[in-house]
Write a structure and sequence with these properties.
Oligomer: heterodimer
Radius of gyration of chain B: 29 Å
Number of strands of chain B: 4
CATH architecture of the largest domain in chain A: 3-Layer(aba) Sandwich
Strand order of the largest sheet of chain A: 6-7-8-3-9-10
Structural class of chain B: mainly alpha
Structural class of chain A: alpha/beta
CATH class of the largest domain in chain A: Alpha Beta
Number of domains of chain A: 2
Number of helices of chain A: 10
Radius of gyration of chain A: 23 Å
Number of helices of chain B: 15
Low-confidence stretches of chain B: none
Order of helices and strands of chain A: EEEHEEHEHHHEHEEEHEEHEEHEEH
Shape of chain B: elongated
Largest sheet of chain B: 4 strands, mixed
Largest interface: A-B, 30 and 29 residues
Low-confidence stretches of chain A: none
Strand content of chain B: 5-15%
Strand content of chain A: 25-35%
Strand order of the largest sheet of chain B: 2-1-3-4
CATH superfamily of the largest domain in chain A: P-loop containing nucleotide triphosphate hydrolases
Number of domains of chain B: 2
Helix content of chain A: 25-40%
CATH topology of the largest domain in chain A: Rossmann fold
Distance between the termini of chain A: 43 Å
Largest sheet of chain A: 6 strands, mixed
Helix content of chain B: 55-70%
Mean pLDDT of chain B: 86
Chain lengths: ~325, ~375
Amino acid sequence: MSAGAPAVLAQGLTKRFNSFTAVDHLDLGIEKGEIAGFIGPNGAGKSTTIRMLCGLLHPSEGRASVAGFDVDRQPEAVREHIGYMSQKFSLYGDLTVRENLLFFGGIYRVPRQSFEERMRFAISMAGLEGRENALVRTLAGGWKQRLALGCAILHRPPILFLDEPTSGVEPEARRRFWDLIHELAAQEVTILVSTHYMDEAEYCNRISLIDRGRLIASGTPSELRARRLGGDLFEISCAPLGAAVKVLTGAPGVVEAAIFGDKLHVVLGSGGLGAADLPGFLGRHGIQAGPARRVTPSLEDVFVQLVSGGQKQRSAT
Amino acid sequence: MNLRRTFAMAYKEALQIWRDPRSLAIALLMPLMQLVLLGYGVSLDIKHVPLCVFDQENSQQSRAVVDRFVSSDWFSISHTINRQSGIGYALDRGDCIAALVIPADFSRRLSTVGAAPVQAVFDATDVNTTNVALGYAQGAVAQANAQIAAQWAASQGVLPSLVGQVDLEPSTWFNETLESRNFIIPGVVAVILSLVGAELTSLTISREWERGTMEQLISTPVTPLEVMLGKLTPYFAIGFFDAGFCLVSAVYWFRVPFRGNIGTLLATTALFIVVVLGIGYLISARIRSQLGASQIALLVTMLPATLLSGFTFPLDQMPALVRAISLAVYARYYVTILRSVFLKGSGLYDLWAPLLGLSIYAVAVIWLAARALHKRLD
């Protein structure tokens, strides 16, 4: 790996399955030691992108390099430098915790003198002390995921690809998992992690929002929150919510109106309606509304706005 | 190729086999079941042909003829009857395959005319059995004739040895007792090993695809050659164990004479196991479901191994086209080798032709199998 080069670089990366385009001209750059988050709904193309970066799928178009090696032409060199956790749990359920670690340690040729110590580290990291001889299929989800992470980092790879590592794992275990990811990043490991939990985006250094195979935004979480909405965000309680969205969409000064839980989130630009005008405006249309309250936008707000913006753009063309 | 990775692969695979009841059953129970079924079920010997006897005279001389029929193992009397119509009935019901009728004036005609007819009726539905039984009947009658001639000569005061006779002294080599078991059992061993070997390895890769563990495995630097060698190593041990079990049973249970060299037997068996395991592995790498792979393995090994290996049906009696096809059936080479080593005591030099066939197969299969795994999902 040459110094200074990005750990992961993709240019125009595209994957088509017959007529379906799963990943559509994706550009990506991840610096060493970063935690890069891949955020998007299920089916957005996150797994396909990660699989191309691991050399498991041929890109249909474009190119990508990992640790300085071309993923399509030098997949074996790429595999020497990465750890990968696939979306579906893929350790051997009929082997014990220790046997799985022994296997992957052997496959990655972990130096013998440090093997025992690294196994102990992986076991304690996964919180599996005392359960070394339990069959892996008998473990609960959170332990399985942490053990899979332990297996993926046994050989100390400089780059780690984690595909939805926390899906189906209870919140407490998810927290623990992210703590582990931060500990690894502190040791200069570059990590690309995908998730469909918006709240997890906040744990990343940089995030890429992906929808329908396209990169729709990227930046640090705070950058995205600040610059992407195109106005200030207000929260308002009103009923019925559906009618309120209809009335507000396209009204002067309203950039975006969307249902957010049991409330309405409205982005107001300059000129047109102000925050104080909202209850009255809605009331004139027969909608009961409380006062509007200014809120700090969450990444979910940003994502909703970006996705609906993208849809408008697409339907316009 | 890296030894440590290969070893890690082999150790993992061995653990998985050990913990998988289905693999263990195929490895240990299938050979036993097949050995019992095929070893006892397939026999080309015709013995104890059920014979129905209608002796209308029931004299000392007529009983002597009947005795000739049953004194060998060839015929067994299923029952005796006392009406002509009983013959048709017994044959219809399948109580007997042959019926022997001795006329009421048998001994009188023998002493006055010097010749007396006996009638033998056969159920010729199964042509092979009938032909053999017919031969047995002619043999029995010839013996009875010789006995009568000797008695006549003695009564005339002539020494029996002075009566001119031509004797055929047949000498059968290699399978002196003409037991079809000696010929069948080595073939059974070959069929069992083809089947069990391919069934075992046909699951090894498809199982990883089905369980999703393959995606993790191919993301590591392990090479397709290391995967193949690692996975085949424990199966080779199992295959060798099964071969040993079958061969020892052939010698000590089925009492097939073993005249060859143990080294020759083990070396050729090892070569054959490599071929069958490799075939199963190739199928497994191509078919991603366990069920599909297992059925294809059954299809491509079972039928050719039983029909075209010369195991029961002699290859040199087949039409030229079928004989040409049988050259592609690797089991036939091992069948030939086993029979020669067991019965003739052949050495490697005598076996060069089937050995060449088997070696070409082994090289081709391993060459293909080492490249069979693509470390890609598309």
